[in-house]
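Q: Please design a sequence for this.
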């Protein structure tokens, strides 16, 4: 039996007040400032809301509270497991504070990212979560002018100019490169993501360059190949690298997707990994440990990082203090795709 009057499919706050035998003002306080009323009143109104199937009008609630209870996040893509995990972690943590996550994608385009971010704010987002620190200057100006809470994720900026939660991409990739150097590799190449408008990809290239230079090794232009984060593109990139004379003995990849493609192509070329070619990834996606050979990669605690980003947003929206810069620890995970270089393969 319907609990509202005939023909009324959308119960109102007045219906809730009548059902709970309280005033509409009391219902409003229970829904919007529950800490201001007694537990018995909260229980009585909650029971009426449940029985009636009442849903508060989002626009009216936002107008009264001067916030919508939503956070917008712009991701480069959702066609990557690392961002799927990020969305899950971010959304679940925000939901614990009754905040709804709205997502958009930019396709690694700074103008697209700016349009999407502004669209989210136009539609009521109270705060933004963005990837990296290479946003269009106009977007950063827009955020600053509105004093909009915003967290930049996947990068670490110790100066704290922008609120950020992440790690030092260059240092993490340098660690992986030094590991290959310690294994005796001298001809190390990189299969990188497209660095344009992607500071994370740029920093990872810089990490490889720094480690090689510190060891007195060359990093010639032809040993850096940039490809989109897709298996087919990664396979083409590895073919290009292995066609060089002399070919590299090790390839460090800008993320695990590129490394997966490199492993597939190495097999297609008849190269034994790691006996003839060592391959290192970045991210430690779930598939990395299940491959044969299992992938050596840099482990990023993705859920921890994005949950921490959500904590910063919740604190900012609540007017609470929080650290402006948070560094997330990463680690190199050594598996089966890397091995000491063969003595006959040593060279310049």
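A: Design:
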């Amino acid at each position: 039996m319907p609990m509202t009057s005939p023909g009324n499919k959308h119960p109102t706050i007045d219906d809730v007040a009548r059902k709970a035998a309280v005033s509409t003002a009391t219902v409003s306080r229970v829904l919007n400032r529950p800490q201001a009323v007694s537990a018995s009143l909260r229980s009585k109104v909650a029971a009426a809301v449940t029985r009636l199937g009442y849903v508060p009008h989002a626009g009216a609630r936002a107008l009264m509270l001067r916030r919508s209870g939503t956070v917008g996040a712009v991701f480069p893509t959702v066609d990557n497991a690392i961002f799927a995990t990020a969305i899950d972690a971010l959304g679940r943590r925000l939901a614990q504070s009754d905040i709804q996550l709205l997502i958009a994608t930019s396709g690694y385009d700074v103008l697209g990212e700016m349009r999407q971010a502004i669209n989210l704010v136009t539609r009521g987002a109270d705060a933004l979560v963005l990837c990296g620190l290479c946003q269009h200057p106009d977007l950063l100006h827009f955020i600053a002018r509105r004093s909009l809470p915003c967290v930049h994720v996947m990068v670490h900026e110790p100066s704290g100019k922008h609120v950020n939660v992440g790690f030092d991409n260059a240092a993490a990739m340098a660690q992986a490169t030094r590991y290959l150097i310690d294994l005796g590799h001298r001809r190390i190449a990189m299969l990188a993501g497209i660095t344009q408008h992607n500071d994370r990809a740029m920093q990872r290239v810089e990490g490889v360059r720094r480690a090689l230079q510190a060891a007195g090794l060359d990093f010639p232009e032809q040993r850096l190949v940039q490809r989109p984060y897709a298996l087919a593109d990664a396979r083409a990139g590895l073919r290009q690298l292995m066609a060089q004379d002399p070919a590299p003995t090790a390839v460090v990849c800008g993320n695990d997707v590129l490394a997966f493609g490199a492993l597939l192509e190495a097999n297609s070329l008849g190269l034994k990994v790691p006996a003839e070619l060592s391959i290192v990834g970045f991210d430690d996606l779930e598939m990395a440990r299940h491959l044969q050979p299992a992938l050596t990669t840099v482990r990023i605690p993705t859920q921890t990082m994005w949950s921490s980003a959500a904590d910063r947003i919740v604190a900012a929206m609540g007017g609470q203090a929080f650290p402006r810069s948070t560094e997330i620890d990463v680690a190199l995970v050594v598996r089966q795709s890397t091995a000491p270089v063969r003595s006959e393969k040593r060279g310049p």
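Q: Thanks. Anything notable?
A: The longest strand covers residues 70-75. The domain at 69-167+302-328 is CATH 3.40.50.2300 (Rossmann fold).
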